[in-house]
Amino acid sequence: MENKSGTQASPPAPENKTDQFTITLESINSAFGISADTLRAIAASHGVTEEQIIVRALTQWAKTEIPDLDLDAPTLTAAQLKTLLDRRTNIDATKDQSTSSLHEMFKSITGEQDNHENAKPSPSNGEHR
Amino acid sequence: MKMQNLPLQMGSIVRTWWPEHDHRTKAGPKFRPVIFLGDTLIEGVLHWVVAYGTSQCHEHNESRNGGDLLVRCIDDGSVVLNSDTRFDFNKIQAIPATSEYFSNNKKSTSLKSCDLPAHLVPQAVQCMKNANVAQTLKRLGVRV
Description:
By secondary structure, chain A is mostly helical. Helix content of chain A is 49%, strand content 0%.
């Protein structure tokens, strides 16, 4: 296409990005993801390739991630990109906060329980439990 | 085969072929997500002490003492966990730390794991308290 001055618009500068991705699935289903066999079965049930079904799944998920996603628009808007970036920033901020680990918090709780047990008064008749 | 000595810590989420109730010394049929709580030696064999997990998050399956923790896969950082998962701290087992129990193909010694999201730690601790996990770990010989 030509711009108004009659010269063709120069293509955008090439960036070091790839449009091809490799994924590796495990041989069994688990909470960590479906298996390769499950992917093949789902793809076959729709009569499409595994790649097509993955793209379908990603597209559907993108629509839940970005409620105002317009698939007729070729790229995300600046506002949409900012929303995604803000989430990343919030996640990083949460991780940077000095929070106690599960182990540390659990130890502090069990320490409190032990102190509570030790603080129980002994029976007045002198017997030990 | 022994699993590789990974830096697991309390709260790490791994998967295991959870032994069924009537076959506790045998790897079960389902590769369940579990929360690592500690390790212990039983008859000279290293065991990992873990809390049961399931992707079946129906409310009617929850325990009644508040010992359940629901981890949603959209929770931050958990890009390894791809399904909402309910962990029940009332169901804890010491399982041999071998590939038979912790490997997806029962042969590999490598382990895939993720961490409990940081913002769920306080809730997890409360669930563990409700389920009296401290007493269970003590009974199993786990040093906290």
